[in-house]
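Hey,

The postdoc asked me to send both predictions to you directly instead of through the lab channel. I've kept everything plain text so nothing gets mangled by the mail client. Protein one:
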Amino acid sequence: MTRATWILSAAALSICAGLSSPAQAQFVKGNEAVRVLPDGKKKVETPPTAGALLAKPCPASNPICTPSGWRMVETLSGLQECTEIYARPTTCRPSTYGVEKVSRLWIVKSKGQWMHCQFPDLSSKCVRTGQPPYSAVQ
């Protein structure tokens, strides 16, 4: 194998490996729900369920549970796509952001308030949870 053939083969393998890799990590800069503590551990809050009128959890594995799109929630397991903002057990799956184009809302905490944001950016259209959100296919 010549050097040029070897370089082309290596480049092709790198491209193929990138295509099959999981979604790239994404986060919302300024999301107060995610903090890194001085010891390097990550502390993550999810919206509180206390006082919320909660239906039975709708599992992420059930396609009927996401007619209006996914709620992107940062959890201790990383970024998750959830059927609800509370990220209760069974309602989330690993993120496919960057791999699949679907309707998404980003759940963040800003200035002490839980918000829905249209994009992973606090300067995008963000409204308090409980108000009609602005979702986008991304």
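Protein two:
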Amino acid sequence: MTDEIGGSGLDDINTWGQVREDTNKVTEEAVRRVQADQKKAQQVGQEIKNDKSTNSKFAKFLTFLLKDIRNDHLLKQIYHTFFKTRHEETDLVHLRKSMNTIVVVGMFVPFYQNEIKELGLESFYQDIFVFDGNIDLTRYIHYIKSLLPKYHDNISIDKQEFTKLLTHITDYYHLTEKLSPEKAIEFENTLKKELSLNE
């Protein structure tokens, strides 16, 4: 009767024993894989928390900055520089959905060193800027020359708008004297040369 069913009872026991052993191996591998996946998920979760915290700090600074700047021309120029982009071939202007926050905040780091430190954002800029409270035109331009390549997001910034922004910033924060329209154009051209923004 055992031959009719498909083998002796001992053969079946050995087969089941192998299946049981293989099942234990698969289960151990599955447990290790699940544990590794959980660890990765925890790391990703921590990175998201850190990103959220960092983004919150940048948002706080930008909120402060927009309240602190009392110059509509400067605010308008920030918008034109970082929220508009011009397609080089078609010359069409497009609005960006987001801006390069690290660069926008970075443009103002030298003027708000204490606020940047209080928010814990100096780590983004400390390798290109010395937080010692001092700022002058030469130091600011040198800093901008380091900031742009470090945090560029591969979306082109209109060079003319950018130099206008720098002119507004240097005027607003008294890095230059009040410039006549002719001197302002001359200063913008000098900035373009200094930052290698010539066409």
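Summary for protein two, as requested: The CA atoms of residues 169 and 190 lie 15 Å apart.

Thanks,
C.
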